Amino acid sequence: MTGTHGTTETAGPVPGPVPPEETEATGRADADPAAVAAVTRAVRAALPPDSVIDDHLRLRTYECDGLAHYKVIPSLVVLPETAEQVAAVVRACSEHGVPFVARGSGTGLSGGALPRADGVLIVTSRMRAVREVRREDQRAVVEPGVINLDITKATTGGGYYFAPDPSSQQICSIGGNLAENSGGAHCLKYGFTTNHVLGAEFVTPQGEIVQLGGLAPDAPGYDLLGAVVGSEGTLGVATSVTVRLVRLPEDVRTLLAGFASTDDAGAATSAIIGAGIVPAAIEMMDALAIEAAEAATHCGYPAGAGAVLVIELDGATAEVDHEFAEVERLCGEHGSFELRVAVDPAERALIWKGRKSAFAAVGRISPDYIVQDGVIPRTSLPQVLRAIADLSSSSGVRVANVFHAGDGNLHPLVLFDDAIEGAGKAAEKVSGAILDLCISSGGSITGEHGVGIDKAAYMPRMFSEDDLDTMQLVRCAFDPDNIANPGKVFPTPRLCGEVPGRHRGAHPLVEAGLAEQF
Amino acid sequence: MSAPTIDLDAARSALGSACGDVTDAGPDDAVDGVPPALVARPASTAEVAEVLRAADAAGLTVVPRGRGTKMTWGRPPERVDLVVDLSRMDAVVDHAAGDLIVEAQAGAPLAAVQETVAGAGQRFALDDPVGDSSVGGALATNLSGPGRVATGTARDLLIGVTVVRSDGVIAKAGGRVVKNVAGYDIGKLFIGSFGTLAVLTQAVFRLHPLPAARRVVTVGFDRPEEAQRLVQQVIHAQVVPGAIEVDRPAEGQGTVAVLLDGIEAGVAGRTATTLRLLGSDAREDADLPPGWGTFPWAAAAPAERQTALKATFALSGLARVLDVARTASAAAGVRLDLRGSGGAGVLYGAVSADADPGAVGSVVDRLRAECTALGGALVVLDGPPAVKAAVDTWGPVPAIDLMQRVKDRFDPERRLAPGRFVGGI
Ligand SMILES: Cc1cc2nc3c(=O)[nH]c(=O)nc-3n(C[C@H](O)[C@H](O)[C@H](O)COP(=O)(O)OP(=O)(O)OC[C@H]3O[C@@H](n4cnc5c(N)ncnc54)[C@H](O)[C@@H]3O)c2cc1C
Fold it and tell me: Residue A201: CB within 6 Å of ligand 1?
């Protein structure tokens, strides 16, 4: 289904013009049965019997990720337990030219873990060991299937946590986080997965196991890890991840502020940032999103608010005290008519509950919806929100806005009723137009959900052909045969071919005349 | 590899039509002792592209240069025909204060960028331990200073780049917003690449608020384990340090210095806590200690150049690194001063200029073995020619084959700074 973007949550499948099974991006089940059979044989020889799935019924369990309206049944699913097993699977794929797709928990929202009909799905759910917690080094070494929140659970006793906190943190895997460079509500202050992954053991698409980065920072050589994080499984499979542990703050303070309009809430956000305050999080919801959250969770958000801000500050107590007073003052100055301060963890949880349940809550006010993910420069917030409102009123498609206001990451929820003829199409059009607004304001087509299969077609709107070609040079270096999650991220694959005039770099000994190279 | 012959006159005229400012190279243009023939000073990304296309057509080998402060870092290139000097591209293109970002050309001095944003109470958190570094040079060498403990390094600050490939193609990656996962984050590949992948021409960075107040707490130490204990005490506390520096000259006491910065109300309290943590000998200062934020070596002519080391290690390895550095240098009979971000697992070392290359080599070997065992590495950033000739400066690098393949794709003809980087890249 080309042209759809964002998650569509529906009661049934959304009919699209082209079933994904038949697109080039997802392959054909009957493309090369002999190659798949050869890979299956090789994999059976290397993995325990119950780690290999090829019966149709069980294969179907893996037909989609969090972007559930794309469905493709893979040829083979494997559940390896070690890096060596992953490497054996990938080597077999490489040898027979069979594509593979890595999958963590399958919560991705851009179809990144959508299987290939002609390929192997490598699922990391049996690689869930927290191998080492190294408090003295402020690091943990974990297997790729480890659930994000489990790293924090394993380290809070020692006063530490893993900072990236996607809303899906109770189920998503660190391998998926790495591949998507996931963020969370608190990335405004603490950064994204890329800032918290220091090393990875990695299986290249040719089946080699390499170590990228490690416990120490600044590994010499190219920062391949930096390129791998966020590459959505198209450069290989992470089999172990070394993460930074962050010291828990002395104090955390959460506040809910009600405003008459998103303009006022936006102005308050700008004023806070302008005052040199970096809150751990600033989240905004508009009236429609508040209505949905209220209906679903009774979170008690201020009645009649046109917008609310959820603001969280953390750090040393004295700083938090001081900045909190500033934030209260700035919200008041910008028209906040109600300020609610969480005095205990229960109240804090209630404030967050409304925000965190917002996506699902929209189901209360609309049978179907698309979750969009785009980024704008924070200062364009008022203009872009007005443009979205205009889009909504001119098309008659309702849009609820929930977003990470601090970093300009919008999650518009485009509402529709698929039972109404043409409503899905109209919603898709609005959703696409919002992405165009993001691009024209100098932002990005995705802040955290990734490109996957869903937004590959939008990449040329943001990047030139030369930009994309340059990214694909990296792809060709890692995966010359284009077998690692092909069809994702890039609208058209680059034919890698042979490297012209390729020769190896001279070893220092050759330079010194101590050895002959040719 | 026999050096291809180059028609210099033809190259000069082709470059001349690509860029208004092309001159014959002088002795000061040598790259770590390797003399180029020509220097081009393009004024825009488009001109850099023209220059690289002309260089590609003429078969010239190119080394990019910012403000020329680290041209001796890395290994000497196998050859250099053309230096592409970016010092004319020194504009701070845009400071979007409300969005906390700044965009600058590669030749802009870090200090100029810092000054621009400071006007709006903001901080460009890339420290310049060398002094007079350009944006491009700082990125290409992955320069960092004390602030890395709090704000990270170039990879945490860079959000968008424009580069010119060796074939003259202009490419951008990232963008102007901090949160962005569209496409590969290839900006990170150019950080620390020593000009071997592409020529950086423009960069966008995220900014931080300028702290209103700062205080430094320092305490002396004699034994390596004491230094480690002090550093561990600070990192496990909740004082949110802005920097944790360890300074250990070849003889005498060492110092642990902790920077506390932020708003006055907070700094006072965190300083008091840090003083308590570090014991009765700890002192509080409003000023940064001498040598703060500089490398332990001094700029010098080749013959008087010290050997510059960079050691990285897991945080809990600090004592072992300090210990091995002292015992190995004593055994080799050379002077070794250390200083760096002990709280980030990074120390820089300076070996005296008159040290025998073999002796330097033995110190490098022992420290390298230790750092590698501690999950890090030991790199010889710079040194006198005799030391560079005798020592494996980069050392063994994991995943070198994959790095070589990336280089082959970006620069198949090896036009860019050949031989300057790891594994002969
Ligand atoms: C309710 C909900 C809320 C969400 N909230 C957020 C949020 O706040 N912030 C955010 O950033 N995202 C969010 N997401 C998106 C999603 O949870 C993240 O992208 C997450 O990181 C995906 O992890 P996963 O284990 O489910 O990965 P999967 O969906 O299984 O895979 C995602 C991608 O990673 C690749 N991959 C998986 N494992 C590996 C590996 N070991 N090596 C290489 N590649 C691998 C896959 O091939 C695929 O391309 C949300 C999703 C849901 C459903």
Answer: no
